[in-house]
Write a structure and sequence with these properties.
The protein has 498 residues and is mostly helical. 65% of the residues lie in helices and 5% in strands. The protein has helices at residues 3-14, 21-53, 67-87, 95-112, 129-150, 155-158, 161-178, 198-223, 236-255, 259-277, 280-300, 302-312, 323-335, 363-396, 400-424, 442-458, 474-485; strands at 120-122, 125-127, 179-182, 185-191, 194-196, 226-228, 231-233. The chain is globular and about 80 Å long.
Length: 498
């Protein structure tokens, strides 16, 4: 046997398939739910089309609007599950089904919406909204699988944290030169045929950087302090590099008017700082700075003023700036407790959708109308499951970097879902960030796939300890005899003191 073959032989022997029955059962539930929803959606759409055409409907056709797309998605989920089984790693079995359910709901929503909302030509073929969402979902599942199976060491993350941060900030700064504006904000970066939002990638990079820096300086930040009058602040020499890196990213985002990403970064920063130090004073001080900074931004940027004014009183201009906010509230009102049913909502007004950005900024408005309050609570419960599993992974690891990284990644999903949900429900001004795994967008899906893939890799509990070998033959009989006599060595003999 050659040296190369001997080098690869131990690795091959270590790969032992491991059943993942919990994950398989949950994925089966996901498949049943999505197939049922797609069938209901298909029947409702055909019934509406028949009613609009004045035709009588004798029997309902429950064929999904895009059965091939749904089968491809479910087949991809099964393939990911089989790869995880073959890999044999002891990974979390709840994360993938939760993310798959969210992604499936997003796919059904994109198939239900008008397909000409987003149209792209790839390799000579024209793809609509639903097909593009499916393509990005398949790529996202591939990213999750590669990270879950292939990521064995986190050294390349913690060692090069400053390099990752510099790359992320550099990509974000490039949007000043090569970026394109969307609704007054310069968000997208286009390099050749590839385009995306660097802020989506930067949220993952920021967590990696903060986890690496805080894990190295946690004890100093938690125990030491700098006193300025009656206030006790973190030790500035150790906190300054981290704050500077965060401030550069936040400053660029603010100048680009991407306030949703700015709020997300700020929340992640405060959350990880509290997780690392356990000091609520840091969070309170950060919230005070946030309120003061928000007031300054409101005075400086007309874009911020418009968003805040629309939040406070959207009925001031219901046909103009406040149109989407008002129509979203009407959609939630029409949905009520149980919703109007998949496919039965979103009537057009003057030939157009009442919420033009429903596929990006307002997906919960569409789902709230068709699934009702119960459906919205179920969706938010799925996000809570992802966050809870991430925090459990963080609590189970003994390495500080891995613990902070898992907690930060869980915060990314939870905070982002809260921000967009609160914006849709008019609890806070709409910030324009996407709803994880549901909103349309390739960069958003890939960034959230990185989060889930990293969490799966961090959940690995290592090789299972081998079971104690069972004694056979004479050794088993001798063991039973010793247990019966109570002796540790030779069996007791009459007349001999124990």
């Amino acid at each position: 046997m050659t040296a190369a073959a001997q080098a690869h032989r131990p690795f091959i022997l270590r790969i032992r398939p491991r059943p993942r029955m919990t994950e398989l059962a949950l994925l089966a539930g996901v498949a049943v739910t999505l197939v049922t929803g797609a069938a209901s959606l298909g029947a409702t759409e055909r019934l509406r089309a028949a009613q609009e055409a004045g035709r009588a409907v004798k029997t309902l056709d429950f064929t999904p609007p895009d059965p091939q797309g749904l089968l491809v998605y479910l087949g991809a989920l099964l393939a990911v599950h089989l790869v995880l089984v073959i890999a044999g790693r002891r990974l979390d079995q709840v994360l993938l089904p939760a993310a798959a359910m969210l992604g499936g709901l997003g796919l059904l929503l994109m198939q239900r919406l008008p397909q000409d909302l987003v149209v792209q030509r790839l390799a000579g073929a024209e793809m609509g909204l639903g097909q593009l969402q499916l393509a990005w979902l398949l790529i996202a599942l591939g990213v999750i699988t590669m990270l879950a199976v292939g990521l064995r060491s986190d050294a390349w993350l913690r060692t090069y944290k400053y390099t990752w941060a510099a790359v992320g900030i550099g990509l974000l700064a490039l949007t000043f030169v090569l970026g394109s504006e969307t609704n007054g904000a310069r968000l997208s970066l286009s390099i050749g045929p590839i385009s995306g939002q660097p802020s989506e990638l930067l949220k993952v990079i920021l967590v990696v950087f903060l986890a690496g820096y805080l894990s190295e300086n946690r004890s100093l930040l938690a125990e030491e302090h700098t006193r300025i009058g009656p206030f006790r602040l973190p030790p500035l020499p150790y906190l300054a590099p981290m704050v500077a890196m965060w401030a550069i990213a936040l400053g660029i985002v603010v100048v680009q008017k991407d306030l949703g990403a700015a709020l997300l970064f700020f929340a992640i920063f405060l959350g990880l700082l509290y997780v690392a130090t356990g000091r609520p004073s840091y969070v309170i001080g950060g919230l005070v700075l946030f309120v003061a900074g928000s007031f300054v931004l409101y005075q400086l940027f007309a874009h911020v003023q418009t968003r805040v004014d629309n939040w406070l009183d959207p009925w001031k201009d219901p046909q103009g700036a406040g149109f989407q906010v008002v129509q979203a509230l009407y959609a939630f009102g029409r949905g009520g407790l149980l919703g109007v049913g998949l496919g039965a909502g979103l009537p057009t007004i003057g030939g157009r959708l009442p919420v033009p950005a429903v596929h990006t900024d307002y997906p919960l408005a569409a789902l709230g109308e068709e699934l009702g309050l119960v459906g919205l609570l179920a969706i938010m419960g799925l996000y809570l499951v992802v966050v809870t599993r991430g925090l459990r992974i963080a609590a189970a690891t003994r390495d500080e970097f891995r613990a902070l990284l898992a907690a930060g990644l869980a915060l990314v999903i939870g905070v982002q879902a809260f921000i967009i949900a609160a914006g849709n429900l008019k609890l806070i001004p709409l910030t324009g960030i996407t709803l994880p795994f549901i909103s349309y967008g390739g960069s958003s899906l890939l960034a959230n796939a990185l989060v889930v893939g990293l969490l799966l890799a961090l959940s690995d509990r290592g090789p299972e300890p081998p079971a104690a070998p069972r004694p056979k033959g004479r050794r088993r009989l001798l063991g039973r005899f010793r247990r019966g006599t109570g002796a540790k060595g030779e069996p007791e003999r009459p007349g001999v003191a124990a």
